[in-house]
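Forum > Structural Biology > Help requests

Title: Can anyone predict the 3D structure of Two-component system, chemotaxis family, response regulator CheY?

Hi all, first post here. I have the sequence for Two-component system, chemotaxis family, response regulator CheY but no way to get a structure on my laptop. I'd be grateful if someone could post the structure tokens.
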Amino acid sequence: MSKHILIVDDSKTVRNLVAFIMKKEGFLVTTAEDGLDGLEKLYSCAHVDLIISDVNMPRMDGFTFIKTVREQETYRDVPIVVLSTEGQEQDIRTGMNLGANLYMVKPAQPESMVKNVKMLLGA
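Reply #1:
Sure, ran it for you. Structure tokens for Two-component system, chemotaxis family, response regulator CheY below:
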């Protein structure tokens, strides 16, 4: 069974690009426009194996999204990758402290994204 990835990013271009890269590697992909949409999609999916989230988004930012996901027992162990243009040390520290497993700064190389996702999934 293919692993399922939830991609949360307000940029349609980024969502589509990351989805294309992950689908090409055989992953099932669900996309969301922001943190609130991400929570809705997470709750409506039968199972999500990994989340890739941006930080700067309307309605609910990525840090609030990660914090909300980590507060729920069901999703506490789902790996979360932050993929953001915010690459300052404080942003990275905040993301990791809230429960992200990995913080990647855009633009990330597709090979690096795939390698890291597979590592986090043990694939």
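The chain has one domain: 4-121. The first strand starts at residue 4 and ends at 8.
Shout if anything looks off.
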